[in-house]
Amino acid sequence: MASRVECEAGEAAAEEELSVLASIYCAEGEFQLLRRSAQDGLLVQIKRTVGAADRGLAVSLLFLLPPRYPSCPPDISVSSPGLSRTQCHDIRRKLLDHAAALPPEPMVHQLVERLQQCVEVREESRGREEEVTEGGGDERWAAALLLDHIRSRRRYVGLLQRWSLQLQLPGALLLGPRILVVLRGARPDVKEFCRLLKTVKVDVDSSGRKCKERMMKVLIEAPMSSSCEHGLQTFLVKEYKSLPELSAAFQELHMTELYELILPLLGDLTAYGSPQ
């Protein structure tokens, strides 16, 4: 009972905070509620321009507010075209540490304000880090994974969305005759996503027991073209029933090149049933 009361109180506090955030970050595209889930909570995106006045830095923050928020802090993702992956991870860690030190009350606005300090610290060493990563270690990759089946859809999808946020890997789960996961981001993070799929119990077997994803196949991993950069921003779930619908989904994701590469590997889509 205490847990349910706590969740209901957290939901009320989160909803009130959403209203406040929408009024504070009211410029076009600045605030967006991306997802509302009874199981996983709220996914909120806030875009800010921070840093020195003469060269403001565009930063996008994703906050995953779990059902028990604000009794427990949110998960956070940081991305910016002006920062390296290492810099974004470092800022994320500082924000998570700050969130853990705050009292259990609505904190998103405080964390957004804290971002300014984190970016100022990063700018002091930015030139040095850019020299270190200049050799291409931060190259962006695209990957397509093939899943055999999904029995426990809510659990499976929830884990994929959580890993995507934690690893800062925008992506999509495409549910249809073949079940595909599309990811884009740094190659080490793609590798970690695949490792989690193989080692964490993400689904249930035919007997209803939790099981790992042992049938996943990596269809392709490749350096990402610049056209993909403007597509995925979060982790989407889309359903399709035919090849034209699958093609349209990849076009919407700005990943037509990846679709053309994996199409010969998919075989006859009509030979496969829909995911459970």
Short note summarizing the structure:
Its main location: cytoplasm. By secondary structure, the chain is α+β, with helices and mostly antiparallel strands.
Question: In terms of topology, how is this protein built?
Answer:
Elements: H1 2-24, E1 31-37, E2 41-50, E3 57-65, E4 75-79, H2 85-101, H3 108-124, H4 126-133, E5 140-147, H5 153-166, E6 171-175, E7 179-186, H6 187-199, E8 201-204, E9 210-212, E10 217-223, E11 235-239, H7 243-252, H8 256-266
Parallel strand pairs: 6-11
Antiparallel strand pairs: 1-2, 2-3, 3-4, 5-7, 5-10, 6-7, 8-9
Helix pairs in contact: 2-3
Domain RWD: 16-122
Subcellular location: Cytoplasm; Nucleus
Keywords: Cytoplasm, Nucleus
Tell me about this structure.
By secondary structure, this protein is α+β, with helices and mostly antiparallel strands. The protein folds into two domains: 132 residues, Ubiquitin Conjugating Enzyme (Roll), CATH 3.10.110; 132 residues, 2-Layer Sandwich (Alpha-Beta Plaits). It has eight helices and eleven strands. A five-stranded mixed β-sheet has the order 10-5-7-6-11, sandwiched between helices. Strands 1-2-3-4 form a four-stranded antiparallel β-sheet. Strand 8 and strand 9 form a beta hairpin. Helix 2 packs across helix 3. The longest helix has 23 residues. It is globular.
Relative strand content: 25-35%
- Main beta sheet strand tally, sense and closure: 5 strands, mixed
* Rg, alpha carbons: 20 Å
**DSSP E strands, number:** 11
- Give the low-pLDDT segments: 127-137, 270-276
Cα end-to-end separation: 32 Å
**Helical fraction:** 40-55%
Quickly count the helices: 8
As for the CATH topology of the largest domain, it is: Ubiquitin Conjugating Enzyme
The name of the CATH architecture of the largest domain is Roll
